[in-house]
Amino acid sequence: MTTRTKQDHGTRSQAGEQGGKSGGGEDTGMPNPIELQRALKGVDYPASRDQLLDKAREAGADASITEALEGIPDREYEDPAQVSEAVAHKR
Question: Is a pLDDT exceeding 70 seen at residue 84?
Answer without folding.
Answer: yes
